[in-house]
Automatic annotation (TrEMBL):
Origin species: Geomonas propionica
Domain of life: Bacteria
Location of the Fibronectin type-III domain: 126-217
This protein's name: Fibronectin type III domain-containing protein
InterPro entries (alphabetical): FN3_dom (IPR003961), FN3_sf (IPR036116), Ig-like_fold (IPR013783)
């Protein structure tokens, strides 16, 4: 029983946003797994490493996007490091299943079982910009953001600018989100903030939404 016999190990084929989404999903599933979360040996990479790789890849992918290049050496290195830990993790799970004679190690762990349809976002994302909305609350110093759902999006990239934007360089990357509603806290009251969001699909990005501005109360 090998990894390739049990799992669809297609992570090298994923673009950076899709791989980021996969790392986050796998970390969440492995944290909730009754065996992986309690019996995995500490030396084997797992959810902690997956989330750390997700953060590094997200930052390097954003830097590449600002430079308007498909990749950088730093992004390639970050993805390679994550792929190594993913392969070690997958091999570990297969070995534990064999050792314990327990197939539970192989299910609900983030990996797609061999022979089932791959989870990919292969439909084109919408060519129309998303419409973002912002309102204050629910708590003081918080803003609730919502935007349109794009059925073809694997995730959404959110950026924030404190003050009035003077161009793309004014925005900082907030993160990659799977939901179309988020509450952002710890904002400075009586200050302007502007937000924009776009769809992330399979090897493509949607256009940025029109910036939505709000004075935090």
């Amino acid at each position: 029983m090998s990894v390739s016999d049990k799992f669809e190990m297609n992570h090298e084929e994923m673009d950076a946003p899709t791989f980021i989404l996969w790392l986050d999903d796998a970390a969440t599933l492995q944290d909730a797994h009754p065996k992986i979360s309690t019996q995995k040996d500490p030396w084997a990479p797992g959810s902690i490493q997956f989330r750390a790789h997700k953060e590094v890849i997200s930052k390097e992918w954003e830097r590449a996007s600002v430079l308007n290049v498909p990749s950088t050496r730093e992004l390639e290195a970050a993805i390679a490091a994550a792929l190594e830990d993913v392969n070690i993790n997958a091999n570990y799970l297969v070995l534990r299943a064999r050792q314990d004679k327990d197939e539970a190690w192989l299910h609900n762990n983030g990996y797609q079982p061999k022979g089932k349809a791959k989870r990919v976002y292969d439909r084109p994302v919408s060519a129309a910009a998303l419409v973002a909305k912002a309102k204050n609350g629910p708590e003081i110093g918080e803003v609730t953001l919502t935007w349109d759902k794009d059925a073809a999006a694997g995730s959404y990239q959110l950026q924030v600018c404190k003050g009035h934007p003077q161009g793309d360089e004014s925005y900082a990357d907030y993160g990659f989100l799977k939901k179309v509603r988020i509450v952002i806290g710890n904002l400075e009251r009586a200050s302007w903030y502007h937000f924009r969001v776009r769809s992330i699909g399979h090897n493509q990005n949607g256009p940025w939404s029109e910036p939505v501005g709000i004075i935090v109360t």
